[in-house]
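As noted in the main text, all predictions were made from sequence alone. Below is one such record, for Glu/Leu/Phe/Val dehydrogenase.
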Amino acid sequence: MTDGIFGRESGHEQVVFCQDRASGLKAIIAIYSTALGPALGGTRFYPYETEEAALADVLALSKGMAYKNALAGLDLGGGKAVIIGDPATAKTEALLRAYGRFVQSLGGRYITACDVGTYVHDMDVVARETRFVTGRSADDGGAGDSSVLTAFGVYQGMRACASHRWGSAELAGRRVGVAGVGKVGHILVEHLLEAGARVMISDVSPAAIERVRAAHPEVEVAQDADALAASPLDVFAPCALGGALNARTVPALRAEIVCGAANNQLATPDIEKQLEERGILYAPDYLVNAGGVFQVSDELHGFDFARAKRKAASIFDTTLAVFALAAAEGVPPATAADRLAERRMSEVGRLRTILTP
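Prediction:
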């Protein structure tokens, strides 16, 4: 199994398996690239069914982070970590601190942050064992919850999609479906409602749905993500786990635009072509969900929220630039985004071979 994953197709610089039996820690840290700088990416705490599933996820996520950070114009590489287990029952101070020691052992090649299943207070605990951590609480000198600017960035990307497709960035009156209203999705819903959009949601967690409905009773609820994708929408926003755009959902899509926060939305490479053939405008996930990395990376320089938000707002212009390149080169937006990211990793990353005193 590992021969196939770690063959020439992977391209990862380093993959580290971490285990501390006493605390129950089982984690994998994957560094895809440090061409532009230390590999920045969050820690996902999730009950993977198998170690192989966790490995496949962390490899895909870390590569996505390298492309995300490159396209965002940051001098940071891409990495990711996964902790295998149910965060509701397995997460302890000892486990998080053991994980922090493994991060520290990499000497700064990897800088961690929050992701699915980890929160600001978890990063405060991890930070007790390593200085290579962002997304800490304000009380601990950090930037706080990166979901705030992740959602803001997706909203800016969605406005750019609207501008490209309909000639106006306004979302008032548009019908938007948000699949997944957790840390990022529920903040995105608030941006959309403030903009005058009509919103429909779905989530596997009844509690998440009730939280949104309690604050915004006007929001509609779909039976599940598949039903939401098949609803008459203008924009479909996948904001849960990866693979939301697949052989089942894409043929049923009725939206003209797909723009959401979830990582690795395309279940298979051919999905991109299917979206293009159906005339559906797809905003590459790592392009529009980069607001969070603007937030946590700013923490490395002494966090200033206003400055980080201004940087996250640039996602609007970057999204339009990706669409312009896609049109000029006759390729789908995801391919255009990849080309821009790869170009920067190659051209700017090469400069690190010029030694300085």
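The chain has a mean pLDDT of 94. Residues 2-59+76-140 form a domain with the Rossmann fold fold (CATH 3.40.50.10860). These features were considered when defining construct boundaries for the mutagenesis experiments described in Section 2.9.
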